[in-house]
Amino acid sequence: MPDLAATSAALPIPEEETEVLAAIRKHGALSRTDLVRITGYSRPKMTLIVGRLVQQGILREVGEGESQGGRRPRMLHFDTSRGYVAGVDLGATSLSVALAELSGTILERRTEPADVRDKPPLILDRVCALLLEMIQARGIDATNIKAIGMGVPGPVQFSTGRLIAPPLMPEWDGYPIPATLRETFPMARIVVDNDVNVMALGELRGGGGVGVENFIVVKIGTGIGGGIVCHGSVYRGSDGCAGDIGHICVDPHGPVCRCGNVGCVEALAAGPAIAARGVEAAQSGSSPLLLARMQTRGGHLTAEDVGAAAAAGDRIAIGIVQDSGRMIGEALAGLVNFFNPRLILLGGGVANIGHQLLASIRQTVLRRSPPLSTKDLRIDYAALKLDAALIGAITLALDHVFV
Q1: What is the spatial distance between Cα 24 and Cα 61, in angstroms, rounded to a whole number?
Q2: pLDDT tens digit string along 92-105?
Q3: Domain boundary residue among 81, 96, 113?
Q4: What is the CATH number of the domain that holds 49?
Q5: How far apart are CA 94 and CA 132, in angstroms?
Q6: What are the C-alpha distances in Å from 226 to residues 29, 195, 231?
Q7: What is the rounded CA–CA span in Å between residue 185 and residue 216?
Q8: Residue 72 dihedral angles phi and psi, to the nearest 5°
């Protein structure tokens, strides 16, 4: 039997209680009548749910609301004296850490450059150092951190919080992230998930996915990944790796991917691939604009440079961006045909390099999917933009803090 103390987290709060807590996070203090109206639960059921949450010390009565003709209702809010939570967003090139109240309100956040190819102790030491700086400045003891949610760019075995064979960060394979963080924050439940699952959770609770039962979040950055929301919950699959769409093959004769296969959409359309095609165009002389940008950047280009050239009307850059959108659209069309989502949200640093990328993705999905699966489908940018993963990580922590 596995050691539960070493696992990512115990079972989360029941869904009905999570729904009540999400309503209070969104609207602030609410009465029991308000919660019945918002959630649709019956009054007797709401009485039981609220009773459990008050008994556990999660909610407390914080005064009286406005009367609607009878007695003034008792208002409910989080008992913020119970502690704090933290969210961690580890990207391929950056690290963000945030401290939040149990209401979900972010008190402070720090962001700094990072390289996921570094060894785990180096980066996890920085996670702890950044969080300690924030809590010590506020006079908060480390034992008052009750949960830490962390998103990482690779396949995660959710039950243990360990990355399994992550292509971007091979040094992290099987590394005990929860146990390592718990050395500094002994009272915290440590919950680790794939970064795009965390983004999807953020969009579900407080972004573009609010009220949408079935949708997909796609992160386009150094890699490409997907987070799936099915029937209002993040779907992780049997082992936690559902949504790893970057390794869908879109060209069987394409380049070798970091995962060892060929033709993966990530190898052809993610940020490094876009940048590499931009460099080729500059060096061949087919794009003087990209050549000029490369010369000012020490011989290097980024996907953002290619996007800027496309926005300036460079024909070659426009073609590169459109090709990337087409290949991403090919992969997404298969998901649309299989899953029939109502919404696809695009996030990550490369998603915003130009309207041509979004337009090309939309056109390809519409062309490659049957009318019934696309008649109500919306494809748009993630509402939380680059904050989706950090907000999702805080939400992940909040979902596990009281279990």
Answers
A1: 12
A2: 999 999 999 988 89
A3: 81
A4: 1.10.10.10
A5: 18
A6: 34, 9, 16
A7: 33
A8: -70, 130
Residues constituting the chain: 403
What's the Cα-to-Cα distance from 298 to each of 115, 271, 292, rounded to whole Å?
20, 18, 11
Closest CA to 129 of 185, 188, 194, 82: 185
Phi/psi for 90 (5° steps) reads: -100, 115
User: Hey, how many other C-beta atoms are within 10 angstroms of the C-beta on 298?
Assistant: 6
Please give the structure tokens belonging to residue 115.
């390289």
**pLDDT (tens digit per residue) in 258-293:** 999 999 999 999 999 999 999 999 999 999 999 999
Residue 104's region, left for phi above 0, alpha for psi from -120 to 50, else beta, is left
Low-confidence ranges of the chain (pLDDT < 70): 1-13, 67-70, 402-403
C-alpha span between 279 and 270 (Å, rounded)? 15
Query: For residue 163, which of 155, 77, 116 has the smallest C-alpha distance?
Result: 155
C-alpha dihedral, 334 to 92 to 130 to 143, nearest 10°: 40
Cβ atoms 338, 248 nearer than 8 A:
no
Q: Quote the CA–CA distance of 164 and 362 in Å, as a whole number.
A: 32
| Total of domains in the chain | 3
Last residue of a domain, one of 81, 100, 134: 81
What pLDDT, on the 0 to 100 scale, is given for residue 1? 33
272 shares a domain with 261: yes
**Residue 12: predicted pLDDT:** 53
**What is the residue range of 24's domain?**
4-81
| Residue 120, domain CATH | 3.30.420.40
pTM > 0.85? yes
Specify whether 334 is located in the same domain as 244: yes
Contact indicator for 191, 147 with CB cutoff of 8 Å: yes
DSSP letter for 249, please. B
CB contact set of 86 (below 8 Å; sequence gap of 6+): 97, 98, 99, 100, 131, 145, 147, 148, 149, 185, 188, 394, 397
C-beta of residue 400 within 8 angstroms of C-beta of residue 102: no
Instruction: State whether 117 and 15 are in the same domain.
Output: no
User: Do 220 and 274 fall into the same domain?
Assistant: yes
9 vs 13, 22, 112, 192, 218, CA distance in Å? 11, 20, 27, 8, 25
Q: Are residues 193 and 153 in the same domain?
A: yes
